Structure formats: structure tokens, C-alpha cells
Amino acid sequence: MNLPDYALTAERVPQHRPALVPVQERQRLQGQVAELLAARDAVLVAHYYVDGDVQDLAEATGGFVSDSLEMARFGRDHPAQTLIVAGVRFMGETAKILSPHKRVFMPTLEAECSLDIGCPPAAFAAFRQAHPERTAVVYANTSAKVKALSDWVVTSSIALPIIEHLAAKGEKVLWAPDKHLGRYIQSQTDADMLLWSGACVVHEEFKAKALGDLKRIYPDAGVLVHPESPAAVVGIADAVGSTSQIVEAAGTLPHELFIVATDRGLFHKLRQRHPHKRFIEAPTAGEGATCRSCAHCPWMAMNELQVLADTLADDARLAANEVLVAPETGRQAMIPLERMLAFPRP
Ligand code: SF4
């Protein structure tokens, strides 16, 4: 079965540019959102790639900022019955699947993900059907329907040990949707993996040649790379890992300066955690550049403070951005998600 190329073309990627907001107005909006969260008895869970003000607000109001694995765990375990998920839609869906009795909202449901869009459930079902002997492992960046069709869900922070575990049992893997992450895991584990052909529009733009050129300018810099990046970029890295693992590596590696190949939203947490180190963006320009993202996910960028305030302030708008998952789909998707959450943390 030959798969079409599920990487998105530039036309399918929104050109979202967040508004520039003066400091005083940002502070006023943060205060307004904090009051609205309290009034709605809601907790804010944010991803590392969203606006730094939204991240700070989540932490200041008793919420949480992390990668998608820990966001899912926090949302499930927190006593609040209303979750506000600042991230992209699959994160909201995951929160809803794990907490079906809670109400889950997002600043905007328009926040999607190129990997999720590039893995349509019907096409994935056909892929699965064509290879019934394989264990289906999907990345968290997929719809609830695709998760419901799978045996395991993994995030980038736990994908390696889970695939190692399956390979040790002699299982052959059917992997979707990120081809770069799939290839990276395959290279580290020697697992027998059949790969879907999706890609992240942000990480796929990092360029190995331009990164090598930058490394010559800063020869003492460490290179931190997210494994959704192409193999040639991963090959230059001093550390490869999920967002949380990149933040950790910046602390444990001895370098004072790092070139970082992931969404630039992560720089907020990197600079907070490691104020004495410096971070520069890995290049997305150079030969073959299209700059579909310029190292910032256009869907993550939709989680602006003003959008969050407007959604929380308006009952009708909030209701329109509630995350809903069909109960049977949710029950099916819960099984592979709980397998991941029960797996020992790396
Ligand atoms: S950065 Fe890439 S993988 Fe993450 S949400 Fe955006 S498109 Fe999806």
C-alpha cells in the first residue's frame, strides 16, 4: 500500500500573526483572565509553545505548563471540573477523553496541527486494515478517532521506551503520523516500523546546511533538536528530545549557548529555567526554504491572551469552543492513552 504524501502544502497552513500588545494591556488582560478563570472555577493548562503571557498566567493561577504528556496527566488528576486547554485541538481532545465528565474548552477550536490534519481517520483505518499483523502506535498529535483505532498512543517524551518495549516483545509496528519522528525512533531502536508520511510544518522547516553554517559561527554552542525535525538536522544535535527533555538538557549540558531547533514558544521556558544561558533559533531559511512557519506554529499562535479573555468572557463563545468527543470514540481512545500513562516514566 503506497501512502500519499501527507505533509501539508503552504496554502493549507494559516498565516496567523499574533497582535503586538503593549505591556500594560497584557497585564490588564492577565488580570481579567485570572478573574474569569476563578469565576468559572476553571484551571488553565498550557503548552510550552503558546504565548509566554498565557504560560505565566497558567502557572500564576494554579494551572500548569508542560508538554502534551504531562498536560494530559495534569488535566486528568486536577480536581477542577472545568479545564481550559491552551494548545492545539488534539490536546483538548486528549483532556476530554481522559476526563469525560469534565468540561473542556479551548480559546479557539481553530487551533489545529499539521500532523493531525495529515492523518485522516478513514485513510488511517485503511492503512491499519492493510497491515493487521502490526501493532498500531500513534503519536499524540492525532484526532480522537485515529487514537480510537490504535493500540498505543505515545508522545515524543515517551515514544522511544515504548517502541523499545514493543520491539523486545517481537512486535512489528505501524506508526503514524510523523515520518521524521518515526525514522528517528527506528534509528534508535532497530524496531520494524512501517511509517505514515505526515510532518510537522514547524520542525520540517529546519535546515541542516544553514544549521551547520550557524554552528561554524558559534562553534561552542550546543545544539538541541526536537525529533520531529528532519534526520539531517537531528544528526547535528547534542541532545534530541521532547520539549520537556530539551528544557532539561539545557540545564545538564555544559554549554553556555544553545541553538534550538523547535518552536520558538519554548524559548520562554528555556530562558526562565536557565537565565544564565543564551538561546538562539535554529535557521529555517536557506536552500528550499518556504517559511511556512518561521519556527512558530501558526495554530499555537492562535492562543492569544485577548482571544482567551474574549472566549472566557462570553458564554456563547465559550460554548462554541467546547471540546466534544463522541462517547464511544472516547471510550476506545482511552484504552491506548491509558496504556501510555501507565507506562513507567522515562
Ligand atoms: S508545532 Fe507542529 S506538531 Fe506542534 S502543534 Fe504545531 S504543527 Fe502540530
CATH topology heading of the largest domain: Rossmann fold
- CATH superfamily caption of the largest domain: NadA-like
Largest sheet: 4 strands, parallel
Query: What separation lies between the terminal Cα atoms?
Result: 34 Å
Shape label: globular
Radius of gyration: 20 Å
- Percent helix, as a range, is 40-55%
Count of DSSP helices? 16
Small-molecule binders here are: iron/sulfur cluster
The CATH class designation of the largest domain is Alpha Beta
Estimated structural class = alpha/beta
Task: Give the total of beta strands.
Answer: 12
Strand content: 5-15%
Q: How confident is the prediction overall: mean pLDDT? A: 94
CATH architecture designation of the largest domain? 3-Layer(aba) Sandwich
Major beta sheet, strand line-up: 2-1-3-4
Number of domains: 3
The helix/strand series, from N terminus to C terminus, equals HEHEHEHEHHEHEHEHEHEHEHEHEHHH
Poorly predicted ranges = none
List the helices and strands and how they pair.
Layout: H1 23-39, E1 42-47, H2 52-60, E2 64-66, H3 68-77, E3 82-86, H4 89-98, E4 103-105, H5 114-117, H6 121-130, E5 135-139, H7 144-148, E6 152-154, H8 159-168, E7 173-176, H9 179-189, E8 193-195, H10 208-217, E9 222-225, H11 231-234, E10 239-240, H12 243-252, E11 257-261, H13 266-273, E12 278-281, H14 305-313, H15 315-320, H16 327-342
Parallel strand pairs: 1-2, 1-3, 3-4, 5-6, 5-7, 7-8, 9-10, 9-11, 11-12
The chain binds iron/sulfur cluster.
The site of iron/sulfur cluster (SF4) has 13 residues, from helix 5.
